[in-house]
Amino acid sequence: MNAVDLQALYDRDPRPTFVVDCDARPVIVSFVNKALLNTPSLASSIHFHDAFRDWWDPDSRVAAAQQEKFRHGRLRWIKFPICKRWLVVSLLEEAKPAATETHGMGIASRQIPRTTAPVQPAGDDIFNIKVQSLELREHIKFVREVDWGATPLGPIARWSPEMLHVVTVMMLETRPTALFLGNDNNIIYNVAYAKIAGSRHPQILGLSIIDGWHVPRNKFRTPEVADPVNATIARSQENTYADAPEEEYHFMIERFGYVEEAFFLWSLVPLVGPVKGLYSIVTEVTEHRLLERRVNTLSKIGQLTNGARDIGSFWTSIKYAIKPYEYDIPTAILYSASELDAASSVHSGKSTGRKCTLEWTIGYAKDCAFIPVSLDLEKDEGLGRALVESAKQTTPVLFRKEDGILPAKLFEEVEQRAFGDPCKAFIVFPFKINDESISGFLILGLNTRRPYDLGYQQWIEVFANLLSNSAASVALYEEEFRNRRRIVEQAAMDRAALNAEVAVLTQEAIDVTARLQSMYDVVDKVGVGFFEYNMEGKLINANNAFFEQSGFTHFPSESSPPFSFAERTFPADLEKTMSMWHTLASGEPVKFDMRWKREPRGPEDPDDFLWIQSACFPIKSSNGSVTSIAGCNVNVSVHKRATKAALLRAEAEKRLATFTEISPVAFFQLNNDLNLTYCNDIWFEITGHPRSPEGEGHWQSVVLPEELPQIHRDIDIIFREQKTHQFSFRLKKQWKGPDGVSCPTWILATATPELDEHGKTISMIGALNDVSHLKWAEHLQRVRVDEALESKRQQENFIDMTSHEMRNPLSAMVQCADSISSSLHELGDLVEVPIIEAQSMLQHKIKDLLETSLDAIDTIQACATHQKRIVDDILTLSKLDSKLLVICPITAQPSVLLRDTYKMFKDEANKAGVSLEVRSEESISDLKVDWAIIDPSRVLQILINLITNAIKFTQTQEVRKVEVIMGASLQPEKKPGFDYVPQETKKKDFLEKREWGDGDVFYLHFTVIDTGCGLTAEHKAKLFLRFSQATPKTHVQYGGSGLGLFISREMSELQGGSIGVQSEPTKGSTFSFYIKSRHASPPSSYRPNVLPNHTKAEIIQHTTAPGSDSPFRLTSTLTSLSSTPPPSANQIFHILVVEDNLINQRVLTSQLIKRGHKVLVANHGREALSQLHKTHFSTSPQSDPPFPLSVVLMDVEMPVMDGLTCTRKIREMEREREIVGHVPIIAVSANARHEQIEMAKQAGMDDAISKPFRIPELLEMVGRLTRGEA
Asked: Among the four 592, 893, 1160, 1241, which has the fewest Cβ within 10 Å?
């Protein structure tokens, strides 16, 4: 091919020709002449038409490669070799180049790239073949009539074969398909697409997509269709691939003579090759989208109306459910009717119940004249006529404007919703509660751009049925509510009538009881034991024969546990007896044999049991529920001994079989395959399994499915570990509890493996017990515990509130009384001045008035203190009930405690004329009791209660003497002749705790002897009970709350001891108690007193002393405890009083000022913070000179800012250096509970005093705090 003349020869050849280099690997086209290059379609087909290449390729092995000539499209080609290397391929017929094709394809080299785009040769196309479809021929005619020459595509005759091929494929496509060709995306589409184009067909043929699908924005109230499509085309052309698999468009299509809402899925695929454009397939999904929208509407309605419980909320829920769906429901009107009778509203002439009320509208302005608020269905006009017409039909009724029934304005004057079109038709349907009643009507405007076709009609029918059913449900709920209310009212009347009947029946029962008593006497004589138990298992009635048989000596006490008969039941019969009990409780009578336990009566009767035959029956109330169990017992021991001898001779296997059949326990046997091989009849009764022959039972069918995995694991344990195993599970069978609630039956299974002679497990034998009643009881117990805890919480809240509200006024009373008393004493000093002494009568008169007034003040103080003591009693009792009263160990000397006790009561005893003596027994010195670890406050609390009672009951006797004796022992010895109170529950040994040390244990005894009026045996029996006193006259004569000795009992038991009494009428009483303690070494810093004075005062404040209404006793006790002298007269305190109660604030301030102290006041915590800036604690005092604050008296509960919050703020200001130094704060609160006082101290308060208090006590506490002794 180096000869230039040969190449020039082929270039001048008018026939398209190319030369192949056969030696090249791979084979290549080495030369293409100009005639072939001037026909690009032919040039590209050299490589990309498979059949053509297989013919000329020398390496091809197809049969056509052996032929010299080949027909490719309408052209015939020939090939021949030259010098074995070159293969010349030439066209036999001249191919005319297309007018639109140009020279210069950009192929510079003599080799044609294998990546040239494939283009088919010219052949048959849709415009020159015979088309059978008449519709397609008509469509092709429209295409031919388009002036394509006026478009960039040119006339059809000049279209390239590739374009004709693509157009042909598109035309023959059955789906709606279009081509957007050229730079302007000119439109050409098939027959199916023409239907989508609607009224635009055939005008848009040949137009660009912008011109063809452009829709003015204000025509259909939707965006221009061409805009999103054009944007998608631009992205597809830029990226040379489909922009998205499918993109959905919401179009307004004018077809079938009207504008229609439609949804389409468009796919746009760029054409690859010489033909420029996009291939688009369109799928209409209008029905799917409408279905989704309508289903969503129904779902929303169901969701919102489901929660409606009355018809008003039901109407409102409908509005909010349908309002968002404006396309399908552009307008809506709802009228309610009070359960309109369907028959009368349509056919009769009655006017009752034929009024409808407008509930709401959608799509209309408010107060439209053509939509009346009230509608009279009697008037056959407008909306009323349409409602009446719809009530006659079974399906929703369609009304159009041309019908002339509905007002014309109803169609025209609508708000701008959805498409903004006037309504064309309305649907009216009633809410039928049932076949006879109508509760309302709904008028719906139809979609203005969708036909009312079959699918639309079916959706409206489902819509109407859904709302009617919902309305019926709401009406049913309201009716049930009204019925329940009527039932409650009727039940109240029935109870009143029943109470009257009960009174009559009670008298009849008394008469019957008297007649039955004579029958019981006869039954006793013949040895028949009669009994009756309540449903808690407690014996409520029995005759003497029953007590002789059972071994009971008397009726069990009320505090005995349920089913006390189990204690006397022979152990082997207990399970059977309880099973019979459950049968009776279910309402079925039983007859069975059982044994009572008893002592053997000699060789002739060696048995330790007594056989009886018991016939029992349940006693039921009028409603069928079991109220008690009654029956009779007959001694059958002789008969049983004979029967036992016969049974011993029976075969063991028969005995076992008989036992399993009569046993209340279900027995079963499973083989290795877990198949049931044996079970007794009770197994079927317990499990609920249908009776079937042995080996055919499927036990898995009666078990709850979720229990099976765990059961298989339990069975695996038995087979694998070869040991007895117990497990529980639930059955499908329902068990009904005493409360009427049903639940799955609970089964307790006990199973053991059966082994062969080689030790291999061959089966599993077990028993089933119905324990549903136990599970129910456990649940009931949990519920009752929760209820008890809630009741306890409410009780504590009530006690705290009562204590707080009583202590506030009591504080003012005590302080006012102190103020008056102080003033009277000052007045008493003035009486001694000479001017008054000169008038002896006046002086005598004034002294008498002063003495009377002072007595009155003492009485007021005593009564206030007594009232406070009662509050403290309740608080102490609350702590005991809540297990919050604890023992605080202190190293102390019991002898000092005894001496302090004497000092406390010495003045009181003297004033009452009672001789008070205290002494220690020799046992104190024998056991070397000096220092011990005790809680002196609790011991003193008991002593105060006992000594107070002793003085109170002795002061009216001729011989008035009270003696207190202290002793010790190594064992908890109880004095002979004393009635000690037994402990209800065993207390844990508190001495094991670390704070009680490791000294030797001993017991400290205290005895209080008085010469009072004494106690009878009856009085002693209830002496230590809660809220109990010796006699009903005790409270009247001596006062008290009846809690003191009960709390003393609890206090002694809490300290490991007990309390008892020895007394006889008119001979006085002796109370003795002991506590547990340990020896201790003297503390490092010895103090002569057991307790500081302020702690003694606190003990008095929190000590329960029943009958503590003696004025002189309380006053003297408080005086004795306040033995520390008050601050000196020249010691002046500067005090900030923070109190919200204005009365308490004024009284306290007045008392402090009267004693010469300086006072600032604040009504709440925020004012206190402001006042603090006026004191010397502030870094920049707001007063000059600053107030030298000594202490803050802080109330706890206040408005705006409470005392705890204020204290925390002050401590925070100290840490932030906003104030200088430590501000002393004393909590002044009416909350006296220990926990509340601890909360105050945790908040940062230095000390606390509970209301009511006296000013000397307060000032003593202030003095200690300012001296740093707190």
From this structure: 1241
